[in-house]
Amino acid sequence: MIQQSGYNTNGMPRQRTVKLRCPICKKSVKSTDPDFPFCSDRCRLIDLGKWASGAYVISSPTTDADESIRESNPEDQEDES
Question: Is 70 inside any structural domain?
Fold first, then answer.
């Protein structure tokens, strides 16, 4: 019998677990852990505090593609007078 990738010996699909690291303390975390993607409630609260205090920011403002095209070609815009 040929065993296919992603299946156990009974022919049933294996449950896939994703292993990541906690974004706060870098401890290994499984996708099935109750506090995923954090390792504990403590790390979850630390992350929430960073968001609330403004420690996490977006590096540059995002712009709409149409808006940037209009800004680069002002002569193409209609005169609203």
Answer: no
